[in-house]
Amino acid sequence: MHSIILAVTQSPQIEHAIRNIESQLCSSVIFISRLRDYHSISRKNHVGLLVVEYAIVRYLTDEERVYFYSLDCPKVVITSVKDEVFSFPIPVYVKLGEPGNLLSENLGKLINEYFRPLPPGSRFSTGTEIQFITRDSRMLKIYQSALKVARYNTHVLLLGENGTGKDVLAHLIHQNSKRNEHAIVKINCAAIPATLLETEMFGYRKGAFTDAFRDKMGKVQLANGSTLFLDEIGDLDASLQGKLLRVLETGEVDVIGGLQPVKVDVRFISATNQDLKQAVKSGTFREDLYYRINVVYHWPGNVRELRHFSERLVLRCQDNEFDPKMVEEEIDVLDYQHTSKAVDSDLNRFMENQEKQFLLRWLTKNDFKILKTASDLGISRISLFRKMKKYRIDPRQLKASNKSGKK
User: Fold this and answer.
1) How many independent structural domains does the chain possess?
2) Residue 172 reports pLDDT greater than 50
């Protein structure tokens, strides 16, 4: 199968810039104006690189964006200096000059560089069309954890600064889950005012309020059977936190103006750049909601401790239900025990070293005479021998080293 460069653009300037350097490129170029035509081209050709105009990527719907991410090829997005800050999680993009003065030479170098296969070990298949590309060992651990979590229906909380790829990780988890037959649904809790966010999330019935001329299905219902990605959940208004908690607890959504709750089957992946534990302490984020969305918690112990941990929870639970706060308290206790053990271990090593030095000083003072040293220390000869064996103190070697030192 022939390997080609596929350029998706509706800009005559960008097409002209690429055509100007086509003879310098490592492969031939096919131009299309719509991203949806990718598959018709890829059936006959291997796409070695996808070059896309930023204006096309910018206005993709959530479903189209998932499709774009899933295309199994390297991607380069071309922008103009007048475009807003680029925010899509694509491995590389390039800013070109003003229209009519595109930096074709730099573009040619970039296309040739990314068209070639990546070095071995830097590309890892996720088992789907999405590719996870990294050489960093820490990112590989995150990747492996995401794949493990993806197999289950547990809710996931992603924490990290802006631009660290939480969006990409959410899509990665969804694409490797049993829900990947349906597109992931996304909502940004910080981008929509609280008054509008409620209708956006939970929907409404016709006549529920003045401008409700028809039924509107909310994002929670749209994600039925799929995954709902709640980006910037730390900015969710307090009143909406309660409604979201009800969905998580009951699997039902209360549509505004509806007479009966609607059953839904949704997996929630939440993300934020905020410290939610601190937000819980300050009262701006509900504690019960935090434990609902943060199901994959840190486990500091071993298997035996996990069994004891479970037994303690059973003894503490009431009405056959676990209080999420109870789980956190037990983990905090275990964390403290592990920390205490580490401190105790360090202290024991320190004390043993001090005892060894103490014995060496007395043995040297008494010219390594065992009976004399034991008598001075107020211990039996056998006890002294045991301690010497424990600390690997050999009188003959020490005598020999002392004599050579005196010479």
Assistant:
1) 3
2) yes
Residue 395 is part of which domain span? 330-406
Q: How far apart are CA 52 and CA 92, in angstroms?
A: 11
**Per residue, what are the HEC states of the chain?**
CEEEEEEECCCHHHHHHHHHCHHHCCCCEEEECCHHHHHHHHCCEEEEEEEEEHHHHHCCCHHHHHHHHHCCCCEEEEEECCCCCCCCCCCEEEEECCCCCCCHHHHHHHHHHHHCCCCCCCEEECCCCCEEECCCHHHHHHHHHHHHHHCCCCCEEEECCCCCCHHHHHHHHHHCCCCCCCCCEEEECCCCCHHHHHHHHHCECCCCCCCCCCCECCHHHHCCCCEEEEECHHHCCHHHHHHHHHHHHHCEECCECCCCCEECCCEEEEEECCCHHHHHHHCCCCHHHHHHHCCCCCCCCCHHHHHHHHHHHHHHCECCECCHHHHHHHHHHHHHHHHHHHHHHHHHHHHHHHHHHHHHHHHHHCCCCHHHHHHHHCCCHHHHHHHHHHCCCCHHHHHHHHHHHHC
214, burial (CB in 10 Å: exposed 0-12, middle 13-18, buried 19+): exposed
In a domain, 308, yes or no: no
- Does one domain contain both 284 and 137? yes
pTM of the model: 0.48
Model pLDDT for residues 31-87, shown as the tens digit of each residue: 999 888 887 887 777 788 888 888 888 788 777 776 777 676 778 887 654 444 444
Contact 72, 131 (CB under 8 A): yes
